[in-house]
Design brief:
mainly alpha; 3-stranded parallel sheet; 12 strands; 3-stranded antiparallel sheet; 3 domains; Arc Repressor Mutant, subunit A; Rossmann fold; 44% helix; binds glutamic acid
Length: 493
């Protein structure tokens, strides 16, 4: 294979969309797999809609995901002169021509062609064969013009072999002479994109199927410019359960990479999830290390059909695709604790719950806490919400735990302080001694041990479930255990 050079060319008109991120991921994987280069090119030709905030957001999102590029960012606007030069070259070589038709006449002709049910309703070539004198005359008269590409009028098909979709072709005669330069002198995106890919020596264009409407015309441009046509691979779109394109307008923040960063996703977990939206390794693996994914990736295994982003808007438990949440939970629970500890630190800092002793005296306690509680967690956010009681005193008690395990038994108002007294009297609380004390108290009171134990879980951790309560009695510092048990009173108001 010749040198692999791929590109990610976002238009900076908004946030980094997960669909865009997936395009970047596939290009990145392909470059890594073949020892190639990934070029980041910001396609900012649409100056009215491009913003610096969007450029910053895209770069930040890629960096967060861990997608590194080898060249760029290049900016399309910096190459405006080259885009014009290419259009002029095509004009000079008779491969493009100036068209002076007015919008009104074009519309009228199109309507008439449609009414007559003609198979070809594109531009009829009125200006295709104007003589240089006729062109000069119209220009002298100040008639505005666009530049159209002269599609070769010959039998046969223009085609390319799509790495995902196979042979794509169309008769030359079915393609109209398309515009490449607007009447204001600005080359169209379609042409700029090709000129940039030629300059950047792009070998493979891996992009969404939504760009396929351009591709055959772009193949014609490569040929007319005397350049080799890159390999194309068009990826399926990502749709929602109703088969509609996912967009911020319809689906909200969940379509932006930033959302996942803000909602406790691990970057590699999101990357892993997105990679599987429209690609599979040919077996049923779903969890990959970086090296495994690079090794497994191939364009041929990108799926032909559209991928479904499984998002049910009104289900609070699944605030995004459950598969994304599950993959995130998998990494959260299996990553080396030392690695996840720094990410949890970030969360705690943001929530104002970080205590510098977690990095010194209480480091062991901190790491053990993470190890104990992460088993049930799905995102980093859970450490400061579901796990809040481990790091702060101002936590709320889960409603079900409060109703079922505390309020149902008014006698707990005295039982839990009694338990506190027994803990206080004990020298050292270990999981074993805590079990003995709690069960001993239940026996003395003639109640099931589960009653004080479940209530203690609610008032100490705020949760209805979790790690062994005996271990937790030993894990929390004694003063906290005693205080939370004795404070039970305040809950019965
Ligand atoms: N700038 C285009 C986009 O953001 C990408 C075009 C391409 O990949 O050729 O959708």
């Amino acid at each position: 294979m010749p040198e692999v050079r791929v590109r990610f060319p976002p238009s900076p008109t908004g946030y980094l969309h997960i669909g865009g991120a997936r395009t970047a991921i596939y290009n990145w994987l392909f470059a890594k797999k073949h020892g190639g280069k990934l070029i980041l090119r910001i396609e900012d030709t649409d100056t009215e809609r491009s913003t610096q905030a969007s450029i910053d957001g895209i770069i930040e999102g890629l960096e967060w995901l861990g997608i590194d590029w080898d060249e760029g960012p290049y900016f399309q606007t910096e190459f405006a002169a080259e885009h014009c030069a290419a259009a002029n070259k095509l004009l000079a070589e008779g491969k493009a021509y100036k068209c002076f038709c007015t919008k009104e006449s074009l519309d009228a002709k199109r309507e008439a062609a449609m009414a007559a049910k003609q198979s070809f309703v594109g531009y009829d070539g009125t200006c295709r064969n104007l003589t240089p004198e006729q062109v000069a005359e119209k220009e002298a008269a100040g008639i505005p013009s666009v530049v159209r590409f002269k599609v070769p009028r010959r039998d046969g098909m223009v085609s390319y072999d799509d790495k995902v979709l196979g042979l794509i072709k169309r008769a030359y005669n079915d393609i109209e002479d398309f515009v490449i330069v607007r009447s204001n002198g600005k080359p169209l995106y379609l042409l700029c994109n090709v000129v940039d890919d030629i300059r950047d020596r792009i070998s493979h264009v891996i992009r969404g199927q939504d760009h396929m409407t351009n591709t055959l015309r772009q193949v014609l441009l490569y040929e007319a410019l005397g350049q080799p046509v890159p390999v194309f691979a068009h990826m399926p779109l990502t749709l929602d359960l109703n088969k509609a394109k996912i967009s911020k307008r319809s689906h909200g923040e969940i379509v932006a990479v930033q959302f996942y960063k803000q909602n406790g996703f691990l970057p590699w977990a999101l990357l892993n999830f997105l990679a599987l939206l429209g690609w599979n390794p040919g077996d049923d693996r779903e969890i990959f290390s970086r090296e495994e994914m690079i090794e497994a990736f191939s364009l041929e295994r990108i799926t032909k059909s559209n991928s479904i982003f499984n998002f049910k808007k009104d289900d609070p438990k699944f605030f995004t695709d459950p598969k994304a949440i599950n993959i995130n939970a998998h990494y959260l629970r299996t990553m080396p604790v030392a690695e996840i500890a720094s990410l949890v630190k970030g969360e705690l800092e943001e929530a104002g719950l970080w205590n510098p002793t977690y990095d010194s005296d209480k480091k062991e306690w901190y790491l053990k806490t993470i190890e104990m509680i992460r088993e049930r967690f799905h995102t980093l956010k859970d450490f400061t919400t579901l796990g809040r009681a481990f790091f702060a005193d101002d936590f709320t008690i889960d409603e079900a735990a409060l109703a079922k395990n505390v309020l149902k038994h008014p006698d707990l108002k005295t039982w839990l302080p009694l338990l506190a007294d027994r803990f206080e009297a004990a020298d050292d609380i270990t999981a074993e001694s805590a079990e003995e004390i709690a069960k001993g108290l239940a026996e003395d009171l003639g109640i099931k041990p589960g009653i004080p134990i479940n209530a203690a879980r609610a008032v100490i951790t705020g949760q209805i479930k979790g790690p062994s309560m005996f271990e937790l009695f030993a894990h929390f510092d004694k003063a906290t255990v005693l205080k939370r048990l004795r404070d039970v009173d305040r809950l019965y108001v």
